[in-house]
Amino acid sequence: GESVGLHLPTLSVQEGDNSIINCAYSNSASDYFIWYKQESGKGPQFIIDIRSNMDKRQGQRVTVLLNKTVKHLSLQIAATQPGDSAVYFCAENPRGAGYSTLTFGKGTMLLVSP
Amino acid sequence: EAQVTQNPRYLITVTGKKLTVTCSQNMNHEYMSWYRQDPGLGLRQIYYSMNVEVTDKGDVPEGYKVSRKEKRNFPLILESPSPNQTSLYFCASSPRTGYGYTFGSGTRLTVV
What we know:
The complex is a heterodimer.
Chain A: E1 10-14, E2 19-24, E3 32-38, E4 45-51, E5 56-58, E6 62-67, E7 72-77, E8 86-92, E9 103-104, E10 108-113
Parallel strand pairs in A: 1-10
Antiparallel strand pairs in A: 2-7, 3-4, 3-8, 5-6, 6-7, 8-9, 8-10
Chain B: E1 4-7, E2 10-13, E3 19-25, E4 31-38, E5 42-51, E6 54-57, E7 65-66, E8 76-78, E9 87-94, E10 102-103, E11 107-111
Parallel strand pairs in B: 2-11
Antiparallel strand pairs in B: 1-3, 3-8, 4-5, 4-9, 5-6, 7-8, 9-10, 9-11
């Protein structure tokens, strides 16, 4: 079947570089945001989340930055590895607190060369 | 192991033949949801459920039905599948509002 990676913006980096993947979200009422990673043939996998009362959150090798003023979310991956190659999606909770439904961005494909 | 299990992983069927894709989670999550994923369109929500017997439409509910009779199961029903329902389907669950979903491995459906 056709890959979900087709038609996506692509970021190509070298192993060891830092990667930054950006996402513009649509709803100013959204108060919860998540980044997912999807490898070929697999379901989306949770990476990191952030709530709207925060500007930055760090995990292992990953950092999420939230700019509510311009409705922008970014995922920074430090020391990118070939195993990081995947499609990355941002997701927002567009109805705010009270519902657990997520709206996903179209995704960005990250290609890491050895 | 905590997981969301979908079956089948692959399915080819003919137009109009009713089918059900099963979804089960073993994490005692309240929220469950179905998404379809299509190239160029991303992940779009079909239906979601906030608890047993509580379901609501997502963004693309036409042609689909769901039920939530038990907390752990959330089957997706296509009463009369059509070729435009050929897609990759994901079931997901979440403990409660304000938390991200855990996704299943996907069901690739082809309707001919």
